[in-house]
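hi! just following up on the protien thing from before. the input was this:
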Amino acid sequence: MAGRILIVDDESNHRLMIKLHLEDNGYKTEEAANGAEALIKLDDFEPDAILLDMKMDIMDGLTFLTHVSRRGLTVPVIVITAFSSVKTAVEAMKLGAADYLTKPVDIDHMLETVAKTLIEKTVIPPLEYAEEYSFEGVYSADGLGKIIEQLKMVAPLNATVLILGESGTGKELIARSIHANSPRKNKPFVAVNCAALNENLIESELFGHMKGAFTGASANKEGRFELADGGTIFLDEIGELPPQVQAKLLRVLQDRTFERVGGIRTLTTDARIVAATNKDLKTLSERGEYREDLYFRLSVFPVNLPPLRERNQEIEPLVNFFISKYAQRFGKLIKGAEKSYIDKLKKYPFPGNIRELENIVERSVILSKSERLTPDTLPPLENRNGCGSLDMRDNEKDLIIKALEKTGGNKTKAAEVLGISRRTLHSKINEFGIK
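and the predicted 3d structure came back as:
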Protein backbone atom coordinates (compact mmCIF):
# COMPACT_ATOMS: atom_id res chain seq x y z
CA MET A 1 0.00 0.00 0.00
CA ALA A 2 1.65 3.24 -1.12
CA GLY A 3 1.46 6.49 0.77
CA ARG A 4 3.22 9.76 1.51
CA ILE A 5 5.89 9.47 4.20
CA LEU A 6 7.74 12.36 5.86
CA ILE A 7 11.17 11.27 7.17
CA VAL A 8 12.48 13.43 10.04
CA ASP A 9 16.07 12.63 11.00
CA ASP A 10 19.20 14.76 11.47
CA GLU A 11 21.51 12.00 10.17
CA SER A 12 21.51 12.51 6.42
CA ASN A 13 22.88 9.05 5.57
CA HIS A 14 20.28 7.32 7.75
CA ARG A 15 17.56 9.50 6.24
CA LEU A 16 18.72 8.61 2.72
CA MET A 17 18.78 4.88 3.50
CA ILE A 18 15.18 4.97 4.74
CA LYS A 19 14.11 7.13 1.80
CA LEU A 20 15.53 4.69 -0.78
CA HIS A 21 13.88 1.64 0.77
CA LEU A 22 10.51 3.38 1.06
CA GLU A 23 10.61 4.62 -2.54
CA ASP A 24 11.61 1.13 -3.74
CA ASN A 25 8.33 -0.04 -2.20
CA GLY A 26 6.22 2.59 -3.91
CA TYR A 27 6.04 5.29 -1.25
CA LYS A 28 6.45 8.98 -1.99
CA THR A 29 8.80 10.60 0.52
CA GLU A 30 9.86 14.01 1.79
CA GLU A 31 12.80 14.70 4.11
CA ALA A 32 13.33 17.05 7.06
CA ALA A 33 16.56 17.40 9.04
CA ASN A 34 14.89 18.37 12.32
CA GLY A 35 11.52 18.98 13.98
CA ALA A 36 11.34 22.65 13.07
CA GLU A 37 11.87 21.93 9.38
CA ALA A 38 9.30 19.13 9.54
CA LEU A 39 6.65 21.48 10.97
CA ILE A 40 7.13 23.77 7.97
CA LYS A 41 6.81 20.88 5.49
CA LEU A 42 3.70 19.38 7.08
CA ASP A 43 1.21 21.71 5.35
CA ASP A 44 2.65 21.45 1.84
CA PHE A 45 3.50 17.73 1.78
CA GLU A 46 0.44 16.48 3.76
CA PRO A 47 2.02 13.13 4.75
CA ASP A 48 0.02 9.96 5.46
CA ALA A 49 2.59 9.01 8.11
CA ILE A 50 5.77 10.41 9.69
CA LEU A 51 8.96 8.53 10.57
CA LEU A 52 10.46 10.58 13.40
CA ASP A 53 13.90 10.31 14.98
CA MET A 54 13.65 11.21 18.66
CA LYS A 55 17.13 12.61 19.22
CA MET A 56 17.85 15.73 17.16
CA ASP A 57 19.77 18.86 18.07
CA ILE A 58 17.21 21.30 16.66
CA MET A 59 13.74 20.51 18.03
CA ASP A 60 13.81 16.90 19.21
CA GLY A 61 11.07 14.35 18.59
CA LEU A 62 9.08 14.92 21.80
CA THR A 63 8.93 18.69 21.17
CA PHE A 64 7.83 18.08 17.59
CA LEU A 65 5.07 15.71 18.77
CA THR A 66 3.85 18.31 21.25
CA HIS A 67 3.53 20.89 18.43
CA VAL A 68 1.71 18.36 16.22
CA SER A 69 -0.69 17.62 19.07
CA ARG A 70 -1.36 21.34 19.67
CA ARG A 71 -2.21 21.78 15.99
CA GLY A 72 -4.78 19.00 16.31
CA LEU A 73 -3.18 16.96 13.49
CA THR A 74 -4.05 13.27 13.34
CA VAL A 75 -1.26 12.06 11.03
CA PRO A 76 0.25 8.85 12.54
CA VAL A 77 3.82 9.13 13.75
CA ILE A 78 6.29 6.23 14.05
CA VAL A 79 9.17 7.20 16.29
CA ILE A 80 12.73 5.91 15.88
CA THR A 81 14.90 5.63 18.95
CA ALA A 82 17.93 3.87 20.36
CA PHE A 83 17.14 0.71 22.32
CA SER A 84 18.39 2.39 25.50
CA SER A 85 15.79 5.13 24.99
CA VAL A 86 12.72 2.92 24.91
CA LYS A 87 11.31 4.90 27.83
CA THR A 88 11.41 7.99 25.63
CA ALA A 89 9.50 6.07 22.97
CA VAL A 90 6.85 5.24 25.52
CA GLU A 91 6.58 8.95 26.38
CA ALA A 92 6.21 9.64 22.67
CA MET A 93 3.38 7.09 22.38
CA LYS A 94 1.61 8.81 25.26
CA LEU A 95 1.74 11.98 23.12
CA GLY A 96 0.02 10.16 20.30
CA ALA A 97 2.77 8.32 18.40
CA ALA A 98 1.35 5.23 16.67
CA ASP A 99 4.37 2.94 17.09
CA TYR A 100 8.12 2.94 17.53
CA LEU A 101 11.22 1.39 15.95
CA THR A 102 14.58 0.86 17.58
CA LYS A 103 17.97 1.60 16.04
CA PRO A 104 19.53 0.13 14.04
CA VAL A 105 16.35 0.06 12.02
CA ASP A 106 15.43 -3.35 10.61
CA ILE A 107 14.20 -2.47 7.12
CA ASP A 108 11.70 -5.33 6.81
CA HIS A 109 10.25 -4.49 10.20
CA MET A 110 10.09 -0.79 9.26
CA LEU A 111 8.19 -1.54 6.04
CA GLU A 112 5.75 -3.81 7.92
CA THR A 113 5.17 -1.12 10.56
CA VAL A 114 4.59 1.62 7.99
CA ALA A 115 2.14 -0.58 6.04
CA LYS A 116 0.28 -1.56 9.21
CA THR A 117 0.06 2.06 10.34
CA LEU A 118 -1.36 3.19 7.00
CA ILE A 119 -3.95 0.39 7.02
CA GLU A 120 -5.12 1.38 10.50
CA LYS A 121 -5.25 5.03 9.40
CA THR A 122 -7.45 4.02 6.48
CA VAL A 123 -9.94 1.76 8.22
CA ILE A 124 -10.44 3.74 11.41
CA PRO A 125 -12.88 6.64 11.09
CA PRO A 126 -12.07 10.04 12.63
CA LEU A 127 -12.28 9.84 16.40
CA GLU A 128 -15.15 11.33 18.28
CA TYR A 129 -14.69 11.26 22.01
CA ALA A 130 -17.86 10.04 23.66
CA GLU A 131 -19.77 12.34 25.98
CA GLU A 132 -21.59 9.27 27.27
CA TYR A 133 -19.80 6.10 28.29
CA SER A 134 -21.50 2.72 28.47
CA PHE A 135 -20.59 1.06 31.79
CA GLU A 136 -22.29 -1.93 33.44
CA GLY A 137 -21.66 -0.77 36.99
CA VAL A 138 -22.09 2.21 39.27
CA TYR A 139 -19.65 4.94 40.19
CA SER A 140 -19.45 8.49 41.53
CA ALA A 141 -17.90 11.54 39.91
CA ASP A 142 -15.22 11.80 42.62
CA GLY A 143 -14.45 8.07 42.66
CA LEU A 144 -14.31 5.87 39.60
CA GLY A 145 -15.73 8.75 37.55
CA LYS A 146 -12.22 10.18 37.19
CA ILE A 147 -11.12 6.90 35.61
CA ILE A 148 -14.16 6.86 33.32
CA GLU A 149 -13.11 10.26 31.94
CA GLN A 150 -9.76 8.71 30.93
CA LEU A 151 -11.49 5.70 29.41
CA LYS A 152 -13.64 7.95 27.22
CA MET A 153 -10.42 9.15 25.60
CA VAL A 154 -8.70 5.79 25.10
CA ALA A 155 -11.61 3.42 24.38
CA PRO A 156 -12.12 4.54 20.72
CA LEU A 157 -8.41 4.08 19.95
CA ASN A 158 -6.49 0.88 19.25
CA ALA A 159 -4.00 1.66 22.02
CA THR A 160 -2.95 -1.12 24.39
CA VAL A 161 -4.29 -0.52 27.90
CA LEU A 162 -2.78 -1.85 31.13
CA ILE A 163 -5.24 -1.89 34.06
CA LEU A 164 -3.55 -1.85 37.47
CA GLY A 165 -5.29 -2.49 40.76
CA GLU A 166 -5.76 -4.78 43.73
CA SER A 167 -7.76 -7.98 43.40
CA GLY A 168 -11.50 -7.37 43.36
CA THR A 169 -11.42 -3.76 42.10
CA GLY A 170 -13.31 -4.57 38.90
CA LYS A 171 -10.54 -4.80 36.31
CA GLU A 172 -12.48 -7.08 33.95
CA LEU A 173 -15.52 -4.78 34.16
CA ILE A 174 -13.28 -1.92 33.05
CA ALA A 175 -11.83 -4.02 30.22
CA ARG A 176 -15.32 -4.95 28.99
CA SER A 177 -16.33 -1.28 29.06
CA ILE A 178 -13.30 -0.34 26.92
CA HIS A 179 -14.38 -2.92 24.35
CA ALA A 180 -18.06 -1.89 24.51
CA ASN A 181 -17.15 1.74 23.84
CA SER A 182 -14.76 1.02 20.97
CA PRO A 183 -15.32 0.55 17.22
CA ARG A 184 -14.70 -3.16 17.90
CA LYS A 185 -17.80 -3.56 20.08
CA ASN A 186 -19.58 -5.87 17.60
CA LYS A 187 -16.54 -8.16 17.39
CA PRO A 188 -15.47 -10.79 19.97
CA PHE A 189 -14.34 -9.96 23.49
CA VAL A 190 -12.13 -12.82 24.69
CA ALA A 191 -11.09 -12.86 28.36
CA VAL A 192 -8.12 -14.95 29.47
CA ASN A 193 -7.01 -15.40 33.08
CA CYS A 194 -3.29 -16.09 32.62
CA ALA A 195 -2.93 -17.33 36.20
CA ALA A 196 -5.69 -19.90 35.78
CA LEU A 197 -4.04 -21.61 32.80
CA ASN A 198 -1.60 -24.45 33.25
CA GLU A 199 1.93 -23.13 32.68
CA ASN A 200 2.60 -25.90 30.15
CA LEU A 201 -0.54 -25.18 28.15
CA ILE A 202 -0.80 -21.39 28.29
CA GLU A 203 1.16 -20.88 25.06
CA SER A 204 -1.18 -23.29 23.27
CA GLU A 205 -4.27 -21.59 24.74
CA LEU A 206 -3.15 -18.13 23.62
CA PHE A 207 -1.65 -18.94 20.23
CA GLY A 208 -3.22 -22.29 19.29
CA HIS A 209 -1.47 -25.52 18.32
CA MET A 210 -1.10 -27.97 15.45
CA LYS A 211 -2.09 -31.63 15.54
CA GLY A 212 0.68 -33.69 17.12
CA ALA A 213 2.51 -30.68 18.58
CA PHE A 214 2.46 -32.38 22.00
CA THR A 215 0.83 -35.31 23.77
CA GLY A 216 -2.93 -34.80 23.64
CA ALA A 217 -2.88 -32.43 20.64
CA SER A 218 -5.17 -34.64 18.55
CA ALA A 219 -6.30 -31.88 16.18
CA ASN A 220 -5.40 -28.38 15.07
CA LYS A 221 -6.76 -25.78 17.48
CA GLU A 222 -7.21 -22.01 17.23
CA GLY A 223 -5.77 -19.92 20.05
CA ARG A 224 -7.43 -17.03 21.89
CA PHE A 225 -5.68 -14.46 19.68
CA GLU A 226 -7.27 -16.01 16.60
CA LEU A 227 -10.67 -16.10 18.30
CA ALA A 228 -10.35 -12.42 19.26
CA ASP A 229 -9.34 -11.26 15.77
CA GLY A 230 -11.00 -7.92 14.99
CA GLY A 231 -12.10 -7.58 18.61
CA THR A 232 -10.43 -7.33 22.01
CA ILE A 233 -8.44 -9.84 24.02
CA PHE A 234 -8.33 -9.24 27.79
CA LEU A 235 -5.26 -10.74 29.42
CA ASP A 236 -5.92 -10.78 33.17
CA GLU A 237 -3.10 -11.52 35.64
CA ILE A 238 -0.57 -10.65 32.91
CA GLY A 239 2.19 -10.69 35.55
CA GLU A 240 1.83 -14.48 35.75
CA LEU A 241 2.99 -15.14 32.17
CA PRO A 242 6.03 -17.45 32.01
CA PRO A 243 9.14 -15.99 30.27
CA GLN A 244 8.78 -17.91 26.98
CA VAL A 245 5.22 -16.66 26.55
CA GLN A 246 6.28 -13.12 27.45
CA ALA A 247 8.62 -13.19 24.44
CA LYS A 248 5.86 -14.43 22.15
CA LEU A 249 3.40 -11.81 23.40
CA LEU A 250 6.01 -9.08 22.84
CA ARG A 251 6.21 -10.13 19.19
CA VAL A 252 2.43 -9.87 18.86
CA LEU A 253 2.55 -6.36 20.32
CA GLN A 254 5.34 -5.34 17.97
CA ASP A 255 4.40 -7.07 14.71
CA ARG A 256 0.92 -8.55 15.26
CA THR A 257 2.37 -11.93 14.20
CA PHE A 258 2.79 -15.35 15.83
CA GLU A 259 2.89 -19.07 15.06
CA ARG A 260 0.77 -21.82 16.59
CA VAL A 261 2.64 -24.27 18.82
CA GLY A 262 4.17 -26.82 16.44
CA GLY A 263 3.29 -24.68 13.41
CA ILE A 264 5.55 -23.05 10.85
CA ARG A 265 3.07 -20.70 9.19
CA THR A 266 3.15 -17.14 10.52
CA LEU A 267 -0.31 -15.85 11.42
CA THR A 268 -1.44 -12.27 12.00
CA THR A 269 -3.96 -10.92 14.48
CA ASP A 270 -5.93 -7.69 14.69
CA ALA A 271 -6.92 -8.22 18.32
CA ARG A 272 -6.64 -5.18 20.57
CA ILE A 273 -4.85 -6.03 23.80
CA VAL A 274 -6.14 -4.92 27.19
CA ALA A 275 -4.13 -6.38 30.08
CA ALA A 276 -4.51 -6.27 33.85
CA THR A 277 -2.47 -7.12 36.91
CA ASN A 278 -2.35 -6.60 40.64
CA LYS A 279 1.45 -6.80 40.54
CA ASP A 280 3.95 -3.96 40.27
CA LEU A 281 5.31 -4.83 36.82
CA LYS A 282 7.61 -1.81 36.80
CA THR A 283 9.44 -3.03 39.91
CA LEU A 284 9.48 -6.60 38.64
CA SER A 285 11.00 -5.47 35.33
CA GLU A 286 13.64 -3.42 37.17
CA ARG A 287 14.56 -6.54 39.14
CA GLY A 288 14.81 -8.56 35.94
CA GLU A 289 11.83 -10.70 36.94
CA TYR A 290 9.66 -9.50 34.02
CA ARG A 291 10.63 -8.44 30.49
CA GLU A 292 11.23 -4.69 30.54
CA ASP A 293 10.47 -4.29 26.81
CA LEU A 294 7.14 -6.09 27.29
CA TYR A 295 6.30 -3.89 30.27
CA PHE A 296 6.92 -0.75 28.18
CA ARG A 297 4.80 -2.10 25.33
CA LEU A 298 1.94 -2.96 27.71
CA SER A 299 2.02 0.28 29.67
CA VAL A 300 1.33 2.67 26.80
CA PHE A 301 -1.86 3.73 28.61
CA PRO A 302 -1.90 2.58 32.25
CA VAL A 303 -5.15 2.86 34.21
CA ASN A 304 -4.82 2.77 38.00
CA LEU A 305 -7.95 1.53 39.76
CA PRO A 306 -8.07 2.78 43.36
CA PRO A 307 -9.07 0.25 46.06
CA LEU A 308 -12.58 0.55 47.50
CA ARG A 309 -11.28 1.93 50.82
CA GLU A 310 -10.07 5.02 48.92
CA ARG A 311 -13.50 5.68 47.39
CA ASN A 312 -15.84 5.32 50.36
CA GLN A 313 -18.42 7.48 48.64
CA GLU A 314 -19.15 4.61 46.25
CA ILE A 315 -20.04 2.06 48.94
CA GLU A 316 -23.69 3.15 49.22
CA PRO A 317 -24.46 3.15 45.48
CA LEU A 318 -22.65 -0.18 45.15
CA VAL A 319 -24.68 -1.65 48.03
CA ASN A 320 -27.92 -0.54 46.34
CA PHE A 321 -26.68 -1.99 43.02
CA PHE A 322 -26.00 -5.38 44.61
CA ILE A 323 -29.26 -5.33 46.61
CA SER A 324 -31.17 -4.91 43.36
CA LYS A 325 -29.20 -7.74 41.76
CA TYR A 326 -29.60 -10.30 44.55
CA ALA A 327 -33.12 -9.34 45.68
CA GLN A 328 -34.28 -10.12 42.15
CA ARG A 329 -32.26 -13.33 42.03
CA PHE A 330 -33.61 -14.60 45.36
CA GLY A 331 -37.16 -13.26 44.86
CA LYS A 332 -37.02 -10.93 47.87
CA LEU A 333 -38.66 -7.52 48.32
CA ILE A 334 -35.75 -5.44 49.64
CA LYS A 335 -35.75 -1.71 48.92
CA GLY A 336 -32.41 -0.58 50.38
CA ALA A 337 -30.18 -0.51 53.45
CA GLU A 338 -30.37 1.28 56.79
CA LYS A 339 -27.92 4.15 57.33
CA SER A 340 -26.34 2.19 60.21
CA TYR A 341 -25.65 -0.67 57.77
CA ILE A 342 -23.86 1.67 55.34
CA ASP A 343 -21.96 3.44 58.15
CA LYS A 344 -20.61 0.15 59.42
CA LEU A 345 -19.40 -0.84 55.98
CA LYS A 346 -17.69 2.54 55.51
CA LYS A 347 -15.47 1.80 58.53
CA TYR A 348 -14.28 -1.46 57.04
CA PRO A 349 -11.07 -1.46 54.89
CA PHE A 350 -12.30 -4.06 52.36
CA PRO A 351 -9.09 -5.95 51.55
CA GLY A 352 -11.14 -7.94 49.03
CA ASN A 353 -12.51 -4.71 47.51
CA ILE A 354 -15.75 -4.73 45.49
CA ARG A 355 -15.83 -8.52 45.20
CA GLU A 356 -15.86 -8.76 49.01
CA LEU A 357 -18.56 -6.08 49.29
CA GLU A 358 -20.71 -7.97 46.79
CA ASN A 359 -20.37 -11.18 48.82
CA ILE A 360 -21.31 -9.33 52.01
CA VAL A 361 -24.44 -7.79 50.44
CA GLU A 362 -25.46 -11.13 48.92
CA ARG A 363 -25.23 -12.70 52.38
CA SER A 364 -27.28 -9.88 53.90
CA VAL A 365 -29.99 -10.24 51.26
CA ILE A 366 -30.25 -13.95 52.03
CA LEU A 367 -30.49 -13.33 55.80
CA SER A 368 -32.74 -10.25 55.70
CA LYS A 369 -36.34 -10.51 56.93
CA SER A 370 -37.23 -6.86 56.34
CA GLU A 371 -37.42 -4.40 53.44
CA ARG A 372 -34.13 -2.76 54.36
CA LEU A 373 -30.79 -4.37 55.20
CA THR A 374 -29.75 -3.95 58.82
CA PRO A 375 -26.35 -4.33 60.54
CA ASP A 376 -27.34 -7.64 62.16
CA THR A 377 -27.15 -9.30 58.73
CA LEU A 378 -23.48 -8.35 58.36
CA PRO A 379 -20.70 -10.89 59.02
CA PRO A 380 -18.29 -10.06 61.87
CA LEU A 381 -16.31 -7.00 60.75
CA GLU A 382 -15.37 -5.58 64.15
CA ASN A 383 -11.90 -7.12 64.24
CA ARG A 384 -10.89 -4.83 61.40
CA ASN A 385 -12.77 -1.69 62.38
CA GLY A 386 -10.38 0.88 63.75
CA CYS A 387 -8.30 -1.38 65.95
CA GLY A 388 -7.27 -3.82 63.19
CA SER A 389 -4.58 -3.33 60.61
CA LEU A 390 -5.47 -1.12 57.65
CA ASP A 391 -2.52 -2.41 55.68
CA MET A 392 -3.77 -4.11 52.52
CA ARG A 393 -1.01 -6.71 52.53
CA ASP A 394 -1.68 -7.60 56.17
CA ASN A 395 -5.38 -8.06 55.46
CA GLU A 396 -4.68 -10.02 52.28
CA LYS A 397 -2.36 -12.36 54.18
CA ASP A 398 -4.91 -12.68 56.98
CA LEU A 399 -7.67 -13.59 54.52
CA ILE A 400 -5.52 -16.28 52.90
CA ILE A 401 -4.63 -17.80 56.28
CA LYS A 402 -8.30 -17.83 57.30
CA ALA A 403 -9.35 -19.40 54.00
CA LEU A 404 -6.73 -22.14 54.41
CA GLU A 405 -7.85 -22.76 58.01
CA LYS A 406 -11.50 -22.87 56.95
CA THR A 407 -10.79 -25.42 54.21
CA GLY A 408 -8.43 -27.57 56.27
CA GLY A 409 -5.45 -26.54 54.17
CA ASN A 410 -7.08 -27.53 50.86
CA LYS A 411 -5.60 -24.98 48.45
CA THR A 412 -8.09 -25.62 45.66
CA LYS A 413 -11.06 -24.98 47.97
CA ALA A 414 -9.30 -22.02 49.61
CA ALA A 415 -8.75 -20.44 46.18
CA GLU A 416 -12.46 -20.88 45.42
CA VAL A 417 -13.42 -19.23 48.71
CA LEU A 418 -11.13 -16.28 47.94
CA GLY A 419 -12.32 -16.00 44.34
CA ILE A 420 -8.79 -16.35 42.92
CA SER A 421 -7.01 -19.04 40.92
CA ARG A 422 -5.07 -21.84 42.61
CA ARG A 423 -1.93 -20.60 40.86
CA THR A 424 -2.40 -17.08 42.25
CA LEU A 425 -2.99 -18.56 45.71
CA HIS A 426 0.30 -20.47 45.46
CA SER A 427 2.04 -17.27 44.39
CA LYS A 428 0.56 -15.38 47.36
CA ILE A 429 1.46 -18.14 49.82
CA ASN A 430 5.09 -17.95 48.68
CA GLU A 431 5.04 -14.12 48.66
CA PHE A 432 3.76 -13.90 52.24
CA GLY A 433 5.83 -16.87 53.48
CA ILE A 434 2.74 -18.67 54.77
CA LYS A 435 3.59 -22.14 56.07
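DSSP finds 18 helices and 14 strands in the chain.
Residues 107-123 form the longest helix (17 residues).
cheers
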